[in-house]
Amino acid sequence: MSEKMPGKELVVAKTLHCEHRSFTKTLFRKSKVPITLFSNGTLYTDSNDPLSHESTRQINIKGATVRYHFSNEGHKFTYRVSTIISLVSSLLLFGLAMAWTDRILIGDLGNGTGDLLQHLFYFWPVIVWIIIDFARDRIGEQEKLEITYEKDKTILLKGDLPFQGEHNFSAMMICISIATTAIVISPEDGLSVLLFGLLFWGVILYSLFSVLGWFLATHEEDKERSHQDLIQFYFAIMNIKEGEIKVEQFENKEDFKNIISMKEKLTVYQKILDQSKASKDIFTSNSPSLVVIAIGATTEYLMMRACESLGVTRKKNARPTLQTFIHEYQTKAKMDDKNISQVNLIREYRNRATHSFNIDWDESIIVMKQFTNFVEWYAQEYANIFEE
Prior knowledge:
There is one protein chain. The protein has 388 residues and is α+β, with helices and mostly antiparallel strands. The chain has 12 helices and 7 strands. A hairpin with a 3-residue loop joins strand 6 (144-149) and strand 7 (153-158). It is elongated.
């Protein structure tokens, strides 16, 4: 892994390397490391190379052997039973926490030494859940992306365990239960209650905003900035490894001719396209998804420059996305419905390509045509800003 960000290369995909999937272990050490894949085949992390003992290295996957391994339950029966126990214990804790809260509020359960065992009775599911949380990492095997490069050097990117969603749900129920009981046992002194209340509601609001951020990250422009699952990251790597566009890829040779024709047509506007680093990947990628991603990134850059030329002042909390630039542009100048449709079509296909990598060549050609028309319009309106 390189420790320095490659200069202005197009970001193709992002994922998270998970050293383990235990929530309890995460309380004591960081487990997730962001990994970024660039259009030139470079894998990058902003951490100090968590995937090996070497302090500095740069990996280019174009000449590497890449294998994806699905997650494994290990001892199938034991693992599935442990998952069920994890869910049941979290739900039991929630019910017992409510019952414990009632007894505390009515004064039926005190703080005496004799009440200790009764208190423990209500929270035994937490102990069971923690044991299961540790055991899952030992019983099951995480999904893995094995990358072999440079004379049999290998790194492993690790993802989720089987039934990860179910275990995540149980962890959420445990947190809700503990938060509820924490309110009840807070001291009754005014200042202490105030401080605890502020802390508690701070945690609640932070959690709500985190969930909202996760939800928004699955929609529209944020798709291209969210982290993909490991298997989607694998598809992105394989797309880059395929190389340049070749006529043999097309069942209909006319499609290949159309692409070459559009490439020649855009050569007239090369000075404009060269301002965007991503534009070089439009006709040098063998993957239709990567072609669409490159077109989307180039369109986004051109719209940003158009907004700047109009003197648009961007809000501090505005995300620098194509959707944002479309809205900002329309506050200063009129954009024909035809041009808006072209840009929106590019945006929609780019989001799909970034998130799923399932664009075919027919769809890619449609986006290329819209992009060619957009560049022609753009050249008439704003070519002068590239002559500065």
